[in-house]
Amino acid sequence: MKKSIQFLGMLLIATVVMVSCKKDTDPADKDLFVGTYKGTVSYKKDGTTINSSDGKITVSKIDDKYSFYFGNNIPDLTGIKFEKKDDNSYVSVGSGFTGITINASTLKMLVVKDGATWTADCTR
Questions:
Q1: Is residue 8 part of a domain?
Q2: Which residues are the signal sequence here (predicted)?
């Protein structure tokens, strides 16, 4: 009986140590940014301007790249990589895609690429 209690005690200690030493999961690894953000969006190119105060952007992720799908006839932005800014937000990196900041609850965007400009100030 004494050996059984000793074994259970050691097993309990080992379990506590394993759980407390588990590596923290990065929010970006859990795809917290994937989903739909709503707010003000705009697009400008060659004299065409689209503005919407009730715009919608759907964010998806494949591998390490994000895509932003707009409503309101605004062209989508795809293949965008991000790097960590602070504990819970990320900023876009790469040619032509700088200017996007995202976290679990907000999306802010000012992207200028190929003569076009996308802006967004959205939440979810």
A1: no
A2: 1-19
